[in-house]
Design brief:
The complex is a heterodimer of chains A (729) and B (123).
Chain A lengths: L8 H24 L4 H20 L3 H18 L7 H23 L5 H14 L13 H7 L6 E8 L11 H11 E9 L17 E8 L3 H7 L8 E6 L35 H7 L5 H10 L3 H7 L5 H23 L8 H26 L6 H25 L1 E3 L1 H4 L2 H12 L3 E6 L4 E3 H22 L3 H6 L6 E10 L2 E8 L6 H10 L11 H5 L23 H10 L3 E7 L3 E9 L4 E9 L2 E6 L3 E5 L6 E4 L3 E6 L2 E7 H4 L13 E7 L2 E7 L1 E9 L3 H4 L6 E6 L5 E5 L1 H15 L1
Parallel strand pairs in A: 6-8, 13-22, 17-19
Antiparallel strand pairs in A: 1-3, 1-4, 2-3, 5-7, 8-9, 9-11, 10-11, 12-13, 12-20, 14-18, 15-16, 16-17, 18-19, 21-22
Helix pairs in contact in A: 1-2, 1-4, 2-3, 3-4, 3-5, 4-5, 13-14, 16-17, 17-21
Chain B lengths: L3 E5 L3 H13 L3 E5 L2 H7 L8 E5 L7 H10 L8 E6 L4 H9 L3 E5 L3 H11 L3
The chains are: A alpha+beta (729), B alpha/beta (123).
Chain lengths: 729, 123
């Protein structure tokens, strides 16, 4: 039956995640203010909501575990127990466990039962006053489900309701109706002996009591259940009259239909049409063995097609792989719901704007219907209006995808708390700019890089307390996370007041790894960016937290995939600041349109360093390396766009063409194009979703004249160029 | 004329589920996210046939809400059902004293919800 609510499951998971965040944040805050009742109440309510709703969906593991947490929280908020660090810790661990349980309920994954049991036991132990509620047998639904209908009973009932019956919105008439629905109600007698004189009578009080007789097929429990809401406050006797019930078999009927017929009756899975084989077996036409045998002989579509030479085994294998991929994608989609909650305000404004757009459109079509040249200024004005509408709608729609970055920051207090405990350092985390909004996908993608940077600061950046005291610094180290808008980008800084980067250590390590030579004179900036090289870590010992030499390069790569940059500022002994600069959204990029032959391409503006028109002699061909260009002493590979995409160019002489110097992941490349057309914002349309992945192309967009333009994937282009020279060599 | 129900719960999912069930059963549903919200939504004396409220809520809890409603002439005799979990059965007593008509134990299925409402709904 509870399947009827299945459509609310996604909503539940979303809400549960919010409640979990409240619980976790609350618990962390509680460590600072263990006496805060309001806070405890808030935590309790969230846990309570999770429990209540999870029960509705039959996630009993979640409900039971949350119940244990709730019991302890209840004792805490009532002051029967005091918040100790142990209890706070236990509750935090339990929150993690609860998170896993909820995830498991969502994805159907298995859970580490041992941990759940252990924590549940610890929770129970911590709730010393914990007395599990004794079996609640008063569930009328359950009672009704197990009743027998074959035995008719006759009950005599005496009922004296509480005087305040009416004040609770109860009506004795309802009770009689319900009893009547159970079977036959007879001999209803009212006792008005307690009725006072009219002068003394309070019309809102109930002075009456009743006696009656019910003949029904239901059990006593069902009859008692009718009085469910008043039984405890009434004088109620229900006696079964023996010997009268015989011969009335069948008179009692099934519980009457509720006045409000439920349209929600579940269509059980049994109703699904059965496979043919099953039906044949059931009707006795074939035996189970014969069916199994036949099924074993049944071939898969792929095999049949191969036999008939309609497809090659490779093609079928490819198709199968594709199918598996799609299945995997569907699976991962299931685990990562792509819903977003939007302020109704934002939607209202949007609807308003769409209204304006419609008006502009109708004004334009009106104008178009009987246009004369004299109306040109009016037309231009209307078009300008249209442009304004469009831009505003674009901005609003984008803002729907915008979430405050606080959602990404929220996990860090916990992380830092755990890190400081693990590393034996005292660390405080200061968050600011949480309200800064950015695209949901960007927020999701920066979680990992940010986590890594914070871990890095806690582990490498900040010194041990003794070392800090020796250096006249406060014992308490500080990590600051800040977010702010800067132009069309958002900047996120991770700052620590630790020891800073050690120039000599990094240089020594880089030389040892052969990343640079001993004679290289590098400016500071370039030295710091060495730590983003794969496999680079100067940590002397590998700790649990970081120092495995993987990570910083991944951080950089992730940020660059998002079209962003990472920069470092550091002062030895004073601390380090990592600044992530990200685009506000992934859907729109600032691009430079270029032309090669008849084709137009868009190059992401962020990757363009400069554009040059080379002089003769700047370009040399080197064996095994292909064409290189000398740009102020540095040799960069030259990629002729028309060669990569097999186009008919207008210009084949580099000195007549334009070379764009592009940078990606620290590598530079010179790309030869015919002409630069201009700069514009373009909306990225995915190639994979609409067509398939094309090497060297990051996506497509629709240009002003309605044609499709491709957006270059600089990294892919570089790879193609490299392969080409290898083949040539 | 359809009956009107006031559904009060701070849990969005719970509230939507109750509202959904009632809407499908032909009720006009007014949703409120806590007691305070509920009081403000019926301040104009909106006709209510049934109130279904959670107990644990921020701003104003269910018990206070029940007391407030009972103080208003319009809702003096309106059936009020409280949504409670088994562990909070002691709340039942407190709710009754505040004037609650009955209760529904969470978790429940739509049928139980509708049956319980039918039990207290004036004809």
């Amino acid at each position: 039956m509870s399947n009827d609510f299945a459509q609310f499951q996604d909503a539940f998971f979303e809400e549960a995640a919010e409640h979990l965040a409240v619980v976790e944040e609350g618990l962390l805050e509680l460590e600072q203010h263990p006496e805060d009742r309001d806070l405890l109440n808030k935590i309790f309510r969230s846990a309570h909501s999770i429990k209540g709703a999870s029960g509705m969906f039959g996630f009993s593991a979640v409900a039971q575990f949350t119940h244990k947490m709730e019991t302890l929280l209840d004792l805490l908020r009532n002051g029967q127990k005091v918040v100790t660090p142990q209890i706070a810790d236990l509750l935090l661990k339990s929150t993690d466990c609860l998170k896993t349980l909820i995830d498991a309920a969502k994805t159907g994954a298995s859970v580490d039962n041992e941990t759940v049991q252990r924590l549940a036991a610890e929770l129970a132990a911590a709730s010393a006053l914990n007395a599990p509620p004794a079996g609640q047998s008063a569930d009328p639904a359950k009672a009704a489900a197990v009743m027998s209908i074959d035995h008719a009973h006759v009950y005599t009932i005496h009922w004296t309701p509480p005087e305040w019956l009416f004040q609770r919105g109860l009506d004795p008439l309802q009770i009689f109706k319900e009893l009547g629905a159970l079977g036959t109600l007879s001999e209803v007698k009212v006792d008005d002996s307690r009725l006072p004189d009219v002068a003394d009578m309070d019309p809102e009080r109930c002075y009456l009591s009743w006696s009656m007789r019910v003949r029904t097929g239901k059990d006593r429990q069902v009859v008692e259940a009718v009085f469910e809401f008043v039984r405890e406050d009434s004088v109620l006797t229900i006696e079964e009259v023996r010997g009268e019930a015989s011969g009335v078999k069948g008179e009692g009927h099934r519980s009457s239909a509720p006045p409000y017929a439920s349209p929600l009756t579940s269509e059980g899975s049994e109703d699904e049409p059965k496979p043919l084989g099953e039906i044949l077996v059931e009707s006795g036409v074939v035996s189970r063995e014969a069916l199994d045998g036949a099924l074993a002989q049944q071939k898969r579509v792929g095999e049949i097609l191969i036999e008939q030479h309609a497809a090659s085994p490779q093609q079928v294998e490819q198709a199968l792989q594709k199918q598996r991929k799609m299945e995997a994608a569907a699976q991962s989609k299931k685990t990562d719901t792509a819903s977003i909650r939007v302020d109704t305000d934002k939607i209202d404004k949007l609807i308003n704007l769409v209204g304006e757009l419609v008006i502009t459109q109708s004004m334009l079509s009106d104008l178009g219907a009987r246009f004369e040249m004299s109306q040109m200024p009016v037309l231009l004005e209307r078009v300008a209006q249209l442009e304004r509408n469009t831009r505003e709608i674009q901005e609003r729609v984008m803002s729907i995808r915008m979430l405050p970055i606080g959602t990404a920051f929220a996990r860090f207090p916990r992380l830092v708390r755990d890190l400081s405990a693990k590393a034996g350092k005292k660390i405080q985390l200061v968050l600011s700019g949480e309200e800064t909004e950015l695209d949901k996908t960007v927020i999701e993608s920066i979680n990992d890089p940010l986590t890594h940077l914070v871990r890095n600061s806690a582990d490498h950046g900040l010194e041990a307390p003794e070392e800090r005291l020796d250096n006249n610094k406060p014992e308490l180290g500080t990590i600051r996370l800040n977010a702010f808008h800067a132009g069309g980008s958002i900047c996120i800084t991770v700052e620590d007041d630790g020891r800073g980067l050690n120039r000599n250590k990094i240089l020594a390590k880089a030389i040892k790894q052969g990343l640079i030579s001993e004679n290289d004179k590098l400016p500071d900036d370039q030295i710091w960016s060495l730590i983003f090289k794969p496999g680079f870590s100067t940590a002397e010992k590998i700790t649990d937290i970081s120092g495995r030499g993987v990570g910083m390069d991944v951080v950089k790569r992730n940020i660059e995939t998002l079209g962003g940059t990472v920069s470092i500022k550091t002062t030895e002994g004073r601390g380090t600041v990592f600044t992530l600069k990200l685009p506000l959204t992934l859907a729109i990029i600032e691009g430079m349109t270029i032309r090669v032959g008849q084709e137009t391409y868009i190059v992401p503006l962020l990757s363009i360093l400069e554009s040059i028109q080379p002089k003769a002699g700047m370009i040399k061909t080197v064996v095994e390396k292909g064409e290189l260009i000398n740009v102020r002493g540095t040799y960069l590979p030259v990629v002729r766009m028309y060669e990569v995409f097999s186009l008919q160019p207008e210009i084949t002489d580099p000195t007549q063409a334009i070379l764009l110097i592009l940078e990606t992941e620290g590598e530079q490349v010179a790309v030869m194009v015919d002409e630069i057309l201009g700069q514009q914002q373009v909306v990225i349309k995915s190639m994979e979703q609409n067509f398939r992945k094309v090497e060297g192309i990051a996506g497509a967009t629709i240009l002003g004249d309605g044609t499709v333009g491709f957006i270059l994937d600089v990294r892919g282009l570089l790879q193609i160029a490299r392969q080409a020279t290898q083949v040539a060599a | 004329m359809s009956k009107t129900a006031l559904v009060v719960d701070d849990s969005r999912t719970m509230r939507q589920m109750v509202a959904f069930t009632l809407t499908n059963a032909g009720f006009t549903v007014i949703e409120a996210e806590d007691g305070k919200d509920a009081v403000s939504k019926v301040a104009a004396g909106t006709k209510l046939d049934i109130v279904v409220t959670d107990l644990n809520m921020p701003e104003m809890d269910g018990i206070t809400l029940i007391k407030k409603l009972r103080q208003l002439t319009a809702y003096k005799f309106t059936p009020i059902l409280m949504l409670t979990t088994e562990s909070a059965m002691e709340k039942k007593k407190e709710g009754k004293e505040a004037g609650a008509t009955g209760w529904i134990v969470k978790p429940f299925n739509p049928d139980v919800l509708l049956k319980t409402i039918a039990k207290v709904l004036p004809a």
